[in-house]
Amino acid sequence: MSNTAEIDLVRLLYNTESTRGIVTTNGVFLGYSLEDVVRPAGSAKVPGETAIPAGRYEVIVTYSTRFKRKMTLLVGVVNFDGVRMHGGNTAVDSKGCLLIAKNAIAPNIIQGSLEKEMTAFVKSEIAKGKKVFITITDTRKAAA
């Protein structure tokens, strides 16, 4: 039995407003993601309007002073602080975080927050003595 639990986010739709993808946990489809715009490598980060870099990050659960509740937190995202997975409908709601939801309504809109389910999943896996990781994969390079 593995001592890790895996969350995968695969970015599929890229445009000038947002980035949408699919989210799986331990290989099982969970829902959709919506993030800010993926910017070309080497471009300046636009605070609150830039998707985090693709990569693998540990996920923990901590208390958010902004949201006033326990939530997932991605650890070690370079040049970003407080990256969480939470509900929201458009990239305006993201502020650099990962929005997760049950439904994809349009290329730039998701609906039906999965924040509670994701937090419960991460807590459950940690309680089993596992480390939880998310791997974010770009399926194409960001437009220049």
Any descriptors?
144 residues; nine-stranded mixed β-sheet; globular
Put the structure in a nutshell:
It is built from one helix and nine strands; from the N terminus they run ββββββββαβ. It is mostly beta strands and 144 residues long.
Can you put this structure into words, describing what you see?
By secondary structure, the chain is mainly beta. The protein has one domain (4-138). Helix content is 9%, strand content 47%. The protein contains 1 helix and 9 strands; from the N terminus they run ββββββββαβ. Strands 1, 2, 3, 4, 5, 6, 7, 8 and 9 form a 9-stranded mixed beta sheet that branches. Strand 7 and strand 8 (109-113) form a beta hairpin. The longest helix is centred in the last third of the chain and has 13 residues, at 115-127. The chain is globular, with a radius of gyration of 14 Å. The model has no long low-confidence stretch (mean pLDDT 93).
